[in-house]
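USER: For my understanding, would you kindly supply a protein sequence with its structure tokens?

ASSISTANT:
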Amino acid sequence: MAEPQSFLRAALQAGLLYFTGVFALGFALGGIRLVLLVPVFGEFLAVLIEVPVILSLSWLLCARAIEKIGLVALPGPRLLMGAVAFAFLMLAEFLLARFMFGESTADYMAGFATAAGLLGLAGQIVFALFPLLQLPFQENES
């Protein structure tokens, strides 16, 4: 059995890899949402259209990150991977909102109180749970 430190390192690496792929994807899809979907459908419907697309692709990116890093099929490392990816995603989105779009911290936080913001946050929580949710679908390597 591998050392706990190697589980920790692998979970951190997998989380960072997962975050990086999904953030790049989200950046591209977010641009499409803002430019093409919001003017036609409004904010909530645009997010409603985007969330299943990004979650479907996130599922695939999650599996690829697990495979590439060789993360064991145990709940602890999988939860840590998701938590790392979620923390970096939230930080990156906050920094984008703050420095690219000029939002204050209060405005950023208030966005989560809207229907579109809550839907997006729910999608981000599901994204964070994907490493754990994939356990039944992957060979047990522990």
Q: What stands out?
A: DSSP finds five helices and no strands in the chain. The mean pLDDT is 94.
